[in-house]
Structure formats: C-alpha cells, structure tokens
Amino acid sequence: MLKNITLSADETLIREARRQAALKNTTLNALFREWLEQLVAQDEAARLEAVRQYEELMERLSHINAGRKFTREEMNERR
Fold first, then answer.
1. Are 31 and 18 in contact (CB under 8 A)?
2. Is 66 exposed, middle or buried (0-12, 13-18, 19+ CB in 10 A)?
3. How far apart are CA 16 and CA 22, in angstroms?
4. CA-CA to 62 of 20 to 30 Å: which in 27, 38, 56, 76?
5. Phi/psi at 13 (nearest 5 deg)?
C-alpha cells in the first residue's frame, strides 16, 4: 500500500526536477520513490557489510583464550 507524504522544496527546484522527470518519461513521484528505495537499500547493504566484517573478526579471534574463566568481580573490576 502506498502512503502519501508531503514535502517542501524550492519552487524552481521542483520545476527543474519535474522537467528532468519528463525527459525520462516518468514522474517526479516515481523518481522520488526510486530514490527512496535506493537510500534504504544502501543502508541495508551497509548494515549487512558491517555484520559480515564483525563475524569475520570474531572468526579470526576465535583462537584467543584467556587461559581461565574470570569471576564476575574480576571482569567488572576497575583499575
């Protein structure tokens, strides 16, 4: 379901954007939806890349062993 939103922009900017949309045989509304989809996809791609890098780091560090289990007090101790 599509939801309407209201945006404000300079009148000249809107006129030029509509002109460019017409040159591409589309509407300003369609161009905005496309831009919004790309924005969300980029954020999701960045999030997935960050997760991948974290998992890779954890895999590389999996061989590290402290040698013993620390108590809660030792782990929270301030020095």
1. no
2. exposed
3. 10
4. 76
5. -65, -45
The stretch 6-30 carries a mean pLDDT of: 96
Residue 20 is predicted with a pLDDT of 96
Within 1-79, residue ranges assigned H as helices are: 11-23, 28-60, 72-76
* CA dihedral sign of residues 41, 43, 44, 45: positive
pLDDT digits (tens, 9 = 90+) for 19-64: 999 999 999 999 999 999 999 999 999 999 999 999 999 888 888 8
**What is the band of 79 on the pLDDT scale with cuts at 50, 70, 90?**
confident
Q: Which long-range contacts (CB under 8 A, 24 or more apart) does 6-14 make?
A: 7/32
